[in-house]
Amino acid sequence: MPSELAEGVVAGNRRALARAISHVEADNAQGRELLADLYSRTGRAQTIGITGSAGAGKSTLVGALAREQRKRGRTVGIIAVDPSSPFSHGAILGDRIRMQDLTADGGVFMRSMASRGNLGGLAEMASGVVDLMDAAGFDVVLVETVGAGQDEVEVATATQSTVLVANPGGGDDVQSMKAGLMEIAQIMVVNKADLAGADTAVMQLRGLLAIAEPRAWQPPILKAIARTGEGVPELVDAIDKHQAHVRSDEHAEAERQGLVESQILSLVRAALYREALGAARAEGSIDTLVEEVVLRTRDPRSAATTLIDALRQRWMKP
Ligand SMILES: Nc1nc2c(ncn2[C@@H]2O[C@H](COP(=O)(O)OP(=O)(O)O)[C@@H](O)[C@H]2O)c(=O)[nH]1
Ligand SMILES: [Mg+2]
């Protein structure tokens, strides 16, 4: 029996959605139950990740994408993942001010979330909130995430289409782009194309793609000016094309399974990591181990093995 809250989410009730998201963020029993109940109602939304370095223009682009999607008559859910929170609410506040026209639009629902420390739960949380917005009936769900660390790369497993945002400028940005990010991106966009060097950046990305393993889906490389919205309709067209590929292309079956597999594995990794840390802290054993390794009376590998053994013993307990 789905709960009243689950029914509220499906009915498109915003307050129910907000409450459901809070449960999922808290990772409590009610949140898990909601996600289990609602999963059969998901799969309809276009889920899109926007990733790239800080300052690349992701938030500005998310705003521009949302406006373009609204023009096309689609409702939009937006999730901003800020890994640096709780210390830098400033950035999100700035985003909110820039997106004021969107927050006043009933067809847009925005939510920002912070990482819960380094417990590896970011991807877990993000995919849960994506599912909630999907079940709530949004046509498009946009997820903004800084592609800086493993956590953020894993957030990409929560969405079907990942857009990598790069910038013109010396090529440092493109050159230093994490290999992992190149692999997860299905669409690349050189934002700030009003600045010099946009074509060079496009060429560099093309070069990187050329040496990457060929895929059934060849990522297009676009240019955009998020500030003015130039190139954004083309970007939405490219996303639509990838979505059509994900949903109907015969190659897509394997890709779809691959995506679900990495989503499951990323959830397993997060859960195991959290449990291991919980065990380590509960026993208080990690402090002793750290001390021993610092003093070199023990090596880090045997310290890790000791913690894993402690975890195993916890699991064996009836
Ligand atoms: N010149 C130029 N600046 C842009 C463009 N898009 C965003 N910016 C600016 O880049 C800065 C960072 O943008 P923001 O969206 O916050 O980047 P984020 O950190 O990736 O979310 C802001 O000052 C934006 O106004 C663009 O198309 N052209
Ligand atoms: Mg931002």
Secondary-structure blueprint:
Layout lengths: L3 H7 L3 H13 L2 H10 L7 E7 L5 H14 L4 E7 L6 H10 L1 H4 L4 E7 L7 H14 L4 E7 L3 H6 L5 E6 L5 H4 L3 H6 L2 E4 L7 H14 L9 E3 L8 H17 L3 H32 L1 H10 L5 H17 L2
Parallel strand pairs: 1-4, 1-5, 2-3, 2-4, 5-6, 6-7
Helix pairs in contact: 1-2, 2-3, 2-7, 4-12, 7-13, 12-13, 13-15
Bound molecules: guanosine-5'-diphosphate (GDP) and magnesium ion.
The site of magnesium ion (MG) has 5 residues, from helix 4 and helix 5.
Gist of the model:
This protein is of the alpha/beta class. The chain has 15 helices and 7 strands.
Description:
The structure is a single chain. By secondary structure, the chain is an alpha/beta fold. It folds into three domains: 41 residues; 206 residues, P-loop containing nucleotide triphosphate hydrolases (Rossmann fold, 3-Layer(aba) Sandwich); 51 residues, no CATH class. It contains 15 helices and seven strands. α2 crosses α3, α7 crosses α13 and α13 packs across α15. α11 links the parallel β6 and β7. It is globular. It starts with a helix and ends with a helix. It has a seven-stranded parallel beta sheet with strand order 3-2-4-1-5-6-7, sandwiched between helices. The chain binds guanosine-5'-diphosphate and magnesium ion (MG). Magnesium ion binds next to α4 and α5.
Task: Write out key terms for the chains shown.
single chain, 318 residues, alpha/beta, 3 domains, seven-stranded parallel beta sheet, globular, binds guanosine-5'-diphosphate
What is the CATH superfamily label of the largest domain? P-loop containing nucleotide triphosphate hydrolases
From the 3D structure, determine the CATH topology of the largest domain: Rossmann fold
Name the strands of the widest sheet in spatial order: 3-2-4-1-5-6-7
CATH class of the largest domain: Alpha Beta
Ligands in the structure? guanosine-5'-diphosphate, magnesium ion
SSE pattern, N- to C-terminal? HHHEHEHHEHEHEHHEHEHHHH
Whole-Å distance between the termini?
30 Å
Going by CATH, the architecture of the largest domain would be 3-Layer(aba) Sandwich
